[in-house]
Amino acid sequence: MVLSVSERTFTQEVLESPIPVLVNFEAPWCGLCRIIHPLLLQFHSQSSEQIKLVGVNADDNFKLSTTYRLKSLPTLLLIENGIVKERLEGFRGREDLLLALAEIKVKYTNRSQTYMPVTARV
């Protein structure tokens, strides 16, 4: 299940989160939002300890939509320590989103491991 966040809870749940947060800006009328929802749930089940997933209804939270300059829905923002690190929007299809989520997963779920140069890995 995805935590629903509003303007009132955004600071606490997202900006002050001790782990990175993937924010899904969506709306009930958005067909593509409904299509990607199962993919986001799958992503969350695989990385929930390292990346938090929250949903924001863009229609009900106009200040957040304006603050983050949403141009289209869905828009996904990966926010770490209050800073937008990744912005995903304008999906061309399911594979496009899966590839982007895989890249995020690799970047943000391997942080707990000790740093080792790429050339030294076997």
Q: Briefly, what is this?
A:
With 122 residues, the protein is an alpha/beta fold.
Question: What does the model show?
Answer:
With 122 residues, the chain is of the alpha/beta class. The protein is built from 4 helices and 5 strands; from the N terminus they run βαβαβαββα. Strands 1-3-2-4-5 form a 5-stranded mixed β-sheet. The longest helix has 17 residues, at 31-47. It is globular and about 35 Å long. The termini are far apart.
How are the SSEs placed, and which strands pair?
Blueprint: E1 3-4, H1 10-15, E2 21-26, H2 31-47, E3 52-57, H3 62-67, E4 75-80, E5 83-89, H4 94-109
Parallel strand pairs: 1-3, 2-3
Antiparallel strand pairs: 2-4, 4-5
Helix pairs in contact: 2-4
How many helices? The count is 4
Low-confidence spans: pLDDT under 50, at least 5 residues?
112-122
Name the overall outline: globular
H/E order of the elements? EHEHEHEEH
Strand count, sense and barrel status of the largest sheet are:
5 strands, mixed
Number of strands: 5
| Helicity, as a percent range | 25-40%
Distance between the termini: 37 Å
What radius of gyration results from the CA coordinates?
Answer: 15 Å
Approximate strand percentage: 15-25%
Structural class: alpha/beta
Provide mean pLDDT, rounded. Answer: 89
Strand order of the largest sheet: 1-3-2-4-5
Domain Thioredoxin: 1-106
Protein name: Thioredoxin
GO molecular function, one term: protein-disulfide reductase activity
Family: Belongs to the thioredoxin family.
